[in-house]
Amino acid sequence: MQAQAITVSAENLLLTSGSQQALDLVARVLIEPGDVALVELPSYIGGTAALHNAGAELVGITMQEDGLDPALVAAQVARLRQLGKRVKLLYTIPNFQNPSGITLSAIKRQQLLALAVQENFLIVEDDPYGELYFDAPPPPAIKSLDCHDQVIYLASFSKILTPGLRTAWVIAPALIAERLERAKEAADLCSSMLDQAIVAECCHQGLLEKRLAYLRDFYRQRCHAMLNALSTYAPADTWWTKPTGGLFVWWELLPHCDATALLPAAVEQKITYVPGAPFFVTDAKPYSLRLAFSKESPPRIAEGIARLCTLLNSTS
Ligand SMILES: Cc1ncc(COP(=O)(O)O)c(C=O)c1O
């Protein structure tokens, strides 16, 4: 946590079986049926599903190119309060967000935290991608600014070491951490000791730092290949994000396109993507989609984008 400038002591820290378990535990512990959870539009489906399963009413807030607009969040909070609703938390993925690749700006982090303190709701800061920056680190974690115990911070070894070792961590105010620990005991007693021992050894031997350097370069090349190919081939008037880290580019096609309907034809061309609609809890954009640059080589990424654009042009 030194890299994130987050001060942490044992009473605030809990190891979990992946961040997905942390999301599930946070939702179980904090949400009472009917509580409102504010979420980004679009957002990570595993996060919104955990909140939904715990009985939260999910209220979506549209993101801008530099993340959530604190003024929009404030307006939603005021509207919901007037309706007599309890706004319990804001769920945000501030760095290279899944699915959009968007990063929340430094100033908006400060403003959102100030709003959370003023309006007394918690921020759940889900940060599995922050270390996967290409050139410069993202702005400081919201948790690193948190003097009022308002933020619950989640991070994971899944994307920076390997997803198979189900090892992640959550940093929470002591009282919440204690409740999370009790909920975890009820769920699985404790996470795999073998997985944790392997992760610890990788850290001690300096493998994590080496792997991070490798991954940053690996994903930087692939992201650039994707962005260059989109600039070359994408149909006019479509819009896509320009991530500075992470694994994903978000692409908004022309409003009459349906990314879900288009998928089978894309798969026939041996290309795949994730349609955007399921990432929205409300106000879905059926013409959006998530592209991953995490796997294929730069030339194959360029070829895939070219084929997808040919398909788009032939169907429009
Ligand atoms: C934003 C976000 N949070 C949490 C998770 C879950 O991560 P883990 O593999 O650590 O459970 C993911 C996985 O894709 C994710 O994208």
Which secondary-structure class do the elements indicate?
A: alpha/beta
| Strand residue content | 15-25%
Helix content: 40-55%
Q: Write down the overall mean pLDDT.
A: 96
Report how far apart the termini are: 48 Å
What is the β-strand count? 12
Segments where pLDDT lies below 50 for 5+ residues?
none
Rg to the nearest angstrom? Answer: 20 Å
What is the overall shape?
Answer: globular
Largest sheet: 8 strands, mixed
Bound molecules: pyridoxal-5'-phosphate
Placed side by side, the strands forming the largest sheet appear as 1-8-7-6-5-2-3-4
What is the helix tally? 9
Q: What is the H-and-E element order?
A: EHEHEEHEHEEEHHHEEHEEH
Q: What keywords describe this structure?
A:
binds pyridoxal-5'-phosphate; 316 residues; four-stranded antiparallel beta sheet; alpha/beta; 12 strands
